[in-house]
Amino acid sequence: MMDSSRIAVKTNNLGLERHEAIETVAEWGIGGVHITASGPFEPENLSKQDRKDLIKFVEDLGLEISAIMKWGGAVDLAEEENWEESIEEGKRLLELAADLECGIWGAHVGIMPWETSDPGWDRMVRGMAQLAEHGESVGACCAIEMGPEPPRIVRRLIETVGSEAIRVNYDPANLIIWPALLAQRNDEAYDQEWALEQYDPVGGAETLGEFVAHCHAKDAMVHEEGQYQEVPLGTGWVDFPQWKSLLDDACYEGYFAIEREVGDDPIGDIREAVEFLRGL
Length: 280
Known about the structure:
Layout: E1 7-10, H1 18-26, E2 32-36, H2 48-60, E3 64-69, H3 83-99, E4 104-107, H4 119-138, E5 141-145, H5 151-161, E6 166-170, H6 174-185, H7 192-199, H8 204-208, E7 212-217, E8 219-222, E9 228-231, H9 240-249, E10 256-258, H10 266-278
Parallel strand pairs: 1-2, 1-10, 2-3, 3-4, 4-5, 5-6, 6-7, 7-10
Antiparallel strand pairs: 8-9
């Protein structure tokens, strides 16, 4: 059985005002809230005192912040466009993560080239190295959101940068969704066997286990025509007991933050997801 204190909820998925969402999560008897650093929670909109006040608000409800999240796909450090601006924003997000005492900023950092000869690979490494240096100085890490590339490519990047300030936010559902999404973007047929072998949504936890700082609990599947779909926990392709077992073997002791980005009843789906995780 999973300890409820290790379960968190991504609060912006609830469709409520930010503070109301945190109060709602507190009623469910779990340990954490996963906060998106947008709108009122943008670094620019939170003074030092605001950050202290937010920590107190969360802690007074018996919760803690599992991680912050920003960069849902609009940034790509493998590309030249807006590269320097993105690095500076990333540094501010690392500072926010440190000030909120979670020390983890989860982020889609772009699409990593599979070949190191690609110029985008060097840009990605240089960008992540700069973020790592800043993260080390402020006491926070950038946890790479899984998805656009296989776990082995993410591991290669982390080992190339060589810093504990670059870690992983493991999302097994993204490793199901992204191969289908990329096939659509490239006007190619989706190959299920190839996608599951290359992206290895569950087994990738063995490849990356030692680098995992935070997890998203999310499920997904791909239909025969190649259309991907996020689905409630336990109804898709993610073998959650096996995934958790591999993370246990890697001595992962962090949060499993429920992320539910679609559906007509997100609060209902998330409450059911809490119970599903408790049963693992």
